[in-house]
Design goal:
Shape: globular
Distance between the termini: 70 Å
Number of helices: 26
Strand order of the largest sheet: 14-13-12-15-16-17-18-19
Helix content: 40-55%
Strand content: 5-15%
Number of strands: 21
Length: 650
């Protein structure tokens, strides 16, 4: 029978079993997830102090929260990054606590169910053993690089020693998460265990007496000090290819601290100071908080109706991919199109998506089975949500609504994926316009995280809440916007892309124009972006938003040739296997980037002033996650407010 150890803990519960095993369950109060705040780390040190005096037979650390293991550090404590004393104390506390855990005389085990991120993974690495519950939600990552910082609590030391330098550097430099299956294959965990047997397996494994796992083979050799310079050179070359203008310092800091300081950030005070005082780190942490704001819109609410079945009308590039993503996320989906060949093409793209996303055949087959071809539209009458994704033509959409609205369930929501048309106009002839909402995805659907949720004056709170919660269940970031031409993202992109096209009309090459914006910090230039979005979409948005200015000649020329960009294989660039074929860029004029970015920033200010989006912060979030605006800048309005004095005001 277990007894509770009285250690006066707020964030942990320590149960001592008759067998001498201690189960240390983490449960941060008043929070949906566990985070490693200074208070939590101090409590863990208290626990370790106690067990140093009275060692248990073994210690098993697990989570008492259904949401997962540990979501990382408490990012709220990063606000004092610019103060050297603050960051030094935080690094020292985490490093020393996990050093203490790693040096424990008794066996220790981290039992991981759900997310194990950042400092949570560093804690698990400090344990002798690690078991993972075999569940789709279980994942491991060191995502600090995405915040412009590095894993300073031992991750840069212990992860390469456990899984080898190449795999560890890939995880640390990309920030990408891996699932339990891959974690076992890499040697990050000792085993995967079924949920029903997690406690028995943990108790058995922690008392097994097995030696702690270590890297083997080439991965182990490349982690040895004599070979680290070789790995550093090769990795630095890849970093420079990925980020040639060195907008992001954190990956280089990780590589240097691993290569020259044995992964110990405390031995690299210069890097700690440079990273902690950088605008990039502060801005990326800001972007994290913006992302959390968007996620909050997608949380389930009592006002939201439950969506079980989705019907998508239109199996083209957008509609087919929206349907595929909905099925991937567990929804039953019927896909309607008058052209059966388009449905077949959409199913082919869906199968390729599922092959990339799911390693297990049963999961791929299940997703394929949820995507049901429905050329005659029988699914309309059964769907809780109908998504229209046909051509951008007002009359065509209104005619479709007239046919399907009488067949829809009384409480079903009707959504349009329009990128440029007025919802008020679209719903003008509906019997019940109060259930028409915009759910605007971006292309490519599988990669773009933002979805604009467009409300009209007539939209009911239930329909709005349902749309927001649905987008959240898709794993996307919902941004509420008002019905207006271009909403937020296309409204700000249109003048940016049109200005780039005017530069083409003036004789600059697409490569040179795009290069100017990549130097600025954009992941892709405006013309590659226009090709990706679709030149027909750019044209539709441009006609509404260009005002008195003429549409650029080069855009009209491409459209006359039916060159719509990536989806047709030709636009400003030729596209092969989903990538643009580019020539060598010329040297961009000195003021080109400012010329291109100025109309984007100006329009973003206008959208906030007109109430299209609720705040400047949400506008920054929308343009970052919907248009790829340089994340390290903090967003267009944040950049405009904090730009260097020598930059001409916009």
């Amino acid at each position: 029978m277990n007894s509770v150890l009285q250690l006066n803990l707020r964030n942990f519960k320590a149960d001592l079993g008759a067998d001498g095993l201690v189960w240390l369950g983490m449960d941060c109060p008043d929070a949906s997830v566990n985070r490693l705040s200074s208070e939590v780390l101090a409590e863990l040190m208290t626990v370790l102090d106690h067990f140093e005096r009275q060692p248990p037979a073994a210690l098993i650390i697990h989570s008492l929260k259904p949401s997962g293991f540990i979501a990382g550090a408490d990012i709220g404590e990063f606000k004092g990054l610019e103060h050297a004393d603050t960051i030094d104390k935080l690094i020292s506390l985490g490093w020393n606590t996990f050093q203490r855990l790693a040096a424990a005389r008794y066996p220790t085990l981290a039992l991981v169910r759900g997310h194990c991120l950042g400092g949570g993974l560093e804690l698990a690495l400090a344990c002798r053993y690690r078991l993972a519950v075999d569940h789709p939600d279980t994942s491991f990552a060191l995502p600090e690089v995405m915040l412009g910082i590095f894993p300073a609590w031992g991750g840069m030391k212990r992860l390469p020693a456990l899984i080898g330098a190449p795999a560890a550097l890939d995880m640390m430099l990309s920030g990408r998460a891996i699932d339990a299956r891959k974690a076992q294959r890499l040697g990050l965990i000792d085993a995967r265990v079924p949920l029903r047997l997690e406690k028995q397996a943990a108790a058995q494994h922690v008392r097994s007496g097995k030696p702690a796992a270590r890297a083997r083979g080439v991965g182990r050799l490349l982690n040895l000090q004599p070979l680290r310079p070789l790995v550093m050179r090769q990795t630095a070359k890849k970093l420079n290819e990925r980020d040639p203008y060195q907008h992001y310092l954190a990956p280089r800091a990780i590589l240097e601290i691993w290569g020259r300081h044995q992964g110990n950030a405390m031995a690299a005070p210069g890097w700690v100071k440079e990273i902690s005082q950088s605008d990039t780190a502060r801005n990326l942490i800001r972007v994290f908080h913006l992302q959390e704001q968007l996620k909050a819109f997608g949380k389930p609410s009592e006002a939201a109706a439950e969506i079980r079945q989705v019907h998508v009308v239109g199996a083209g590039a957008m509609g087919g991919d929206i349907a595929a993503w909905c099925a991937l996320k567990g929804f039953k989906v019927t896909l309607q199109d008058q052209d059966r060949e388009r449905i077949a093409d959409a199913q082919g793209r869906a199968q390729a998506l599922y092959a990339r996303r799911f390693k297990e055949a049963r999961l791929r087959v299940a997703a394929q089975d949820r995507l049901i071809p429905d050329p005659l539209g029988h699914g309309v009458s059964h769907a809780d949500l109908v998504i229209e994704a046909i051509t951008e033509n007002l009359e065509a959409k209104q005619a479709l609504y007239a046919r399907i609205e009488p067949r829809m369930k009384a409480d079903a929501v009707l959504a349009t994926n329009t990128s440029s048309l007025s919802l008020a106009s679209l719903g003008a002839h509906l019997r019940d316009p109060s259930r028409l909402v915009g759910i605007h995805f971006f292309n490519p659907v599988a990669k773009m995280p933002l979805v604009e949720v467009v409300r009209t004056e007539q939209l009911t709170p239930t329909a709005l809440a349902t749309a927001l919660a649905f987008v959240g269940k898709l794993g996307k970031l919902p941004l509420p916007v008002k019905d207006a031409p271009g909403f937020l993202v296309n409204a700000v992109l249109a003048p940016y892309m049109l200005e780039a096209m005017r530069c083409v009309d003036e004789g600059l090459s697409p490569e040179t124009i795009d290069e100017a914006m990549k130097v600025f910090g954009m992941p892709m230039g405006p013309l590659e972006l226009a090709d990706t979005v679709g030149l027909d979409i750019a044209h539709a948005a441009g006609r509404q938003l260009a005002g008195e200015q003429a549409i650029p000649h080069c855009l009209e020329d491409h459209l006359s040739r039916k060159q719509l960009g990536r989806k047709t294989g030709r636009g400003f660039y030729a596209w092969k296997e989903g990538k643009p074929v580019k020539q060598q860029p010329g040297t961009p004029p000195a003021d080109l980037a400012l010329r291109l970015i100025s109309p984007l920033v100006k329009r973003t200010h206008e959208q906030v002033a007109h109430g299209i989006v609720a705040s400047a912060d949400l506008a920054d979030a929308g343009v970052i996650f919907g248009a790829g605006f340089a994340p390290f800048s903090g967003g267009p309005l944040h950049w405009d407010q904090h730009k260097a004095p020598e930059v001409v005001p916009i």
